[in-house]
Amino acid sequence: MLIMIRVLSNAAIEYDIKQDLRKEIEKNLQNVSMENRDLKISEDFLYENDNVHFLIIDNELQIVAGEYSDNVMEELQNLAIKNKTSHAVICDGEKYYVRDVRIQGSGIKNCLYIRGFIRKADADSSYRAIELISYLCIVGVLCIILICELFLSKRISTELKNMCQTAEQIGSNLDMSQRIKYNNQFKEIAVLAQANNRMLDRMEQTFQMQEQFTSDVAHELRTPVSVVMAQCQYARGKDIGREGYEEALEVIYRQSRKIEQIITQLLNFSRLDQDRVQLQEELLDLVEIVESVCESIQEKAQGGILLRLHMQDAVTVGDIGLIIIVVQNLVTNAIKFSEKGGQVDVSTGTEQDWVYVKVRDYGIGIEPEHLESIFRRFYQCDTSRNAEGFGLGLPLCEKIAQKHGGRIEVVSEVGKGSAFTLYLPQK
Question: What's the predicted TM-score (pTM) here?
Fold first, then answer.
């Protein structure tokens, strides 16, 4: 960069010297004139001004007025005339700039010229002082920039060091409650810290969900296992007869079935979470699926619950086995939370780019504070009225709906019932 500045400054200096030489000659040219072929030189004519020397010569290089200095006399005296052209010449090891301008009115044979010349070293002195000041300013600016960079780099490195220390502490003690602190002085570091904190939020939430999941699984499995062990001890402790053994085996079978259902649904969740379930896509007639599922459930329904069907054409593409699971869960839940002798409305249809299955019950409804949690695994709004369930049905339904690119929406009002709607993309 300094070399480029040096080259450009030299070019600029040379250009300025030539321009100043031209202006000085044009100014001095006004002080000479020709009258009847005689040269008239005004008293204002300057033979030297601002290190520029002037003299008048004819076309044969003879001096008419003024004189050369001794050190340049021979070289400049023999220098050919170039009208209105500035050029450089080396005299006695020094560089000079010379310009000749013809005096208007002088004859053709005896043409007169004003010759101006200036030594480059004399003109350079002021320019070099400016150049030196420029270099000093550049060095000063670079020093200031370097100091600022060192200061900023130290501040940035301190911020990054604190972030690394916090990350190492989190990695060593697994305390996901810690967060990376930042002072918002550097936007990029703030963005990085925010991204890391958001990642830590998700990780903390994931760990909490994992801990809660482990606790919920243990809780759900403990009850049936305890019942099974109690029945085994009861059967082994004394002679209870054939009827007692059959009763104990019946209890053990029911609890084992419950354990099997929990494990089956957990495996389904695991496969869906890890995308290990390959959808067996085929054309699905939701009307046919709903009618088949409702017919089967109606036969087993207790408490006189009536299923009322409102069918409109609804066709999509998906895995029939998984969609049947969703419909069964939604209808079974609606029956479970309906009053004896009540009714459940099941309808199908299309809505914009979606097909839907809507299950509406008129039972006890869901409290508003529970609506956001009902799709959480093992979550139960009221275990006293849901003794047969274990909080995996709705989460599994939501997971299957998402796998098909759909969703489940719920609307509920306490004392008036709930409506669950499965939406799937229309094909």
Answer: 0.49
CB 297 within 8 A of CB 332: yes
The H or E element spanning position 327 is helix 320-336
CA dist 154 and 147 (Å) reads 11
CB 9 within 8 A of CB 134: yes
C-alpha closest to that of 211 among 27, 377, 37: 377
Contact between 97 and 88 under an 8 Å Cβ cutoff? The reply is yes
- Distance of alpha carbon 25 from alpha carbon 85, whole angstroms: 12
Query: Which of helix, strand or coil describes residue 314?
Result: coil
Tens of pLDDT, residue by residue over 380-426, are: 665 444 445 567 788 888 988 988 999 999 999 888 899 999 999 98
AA letter at 387: A
Distances (CA, A) of 50 to 46, 57, 119, 124, 337: 10, 21, 11, 12, 109
Q: What is the pLDDT of residues 62-102, one digit of tens each?
A: 888 888 877 777 777 888 888 888 888 888 788 888 999 98
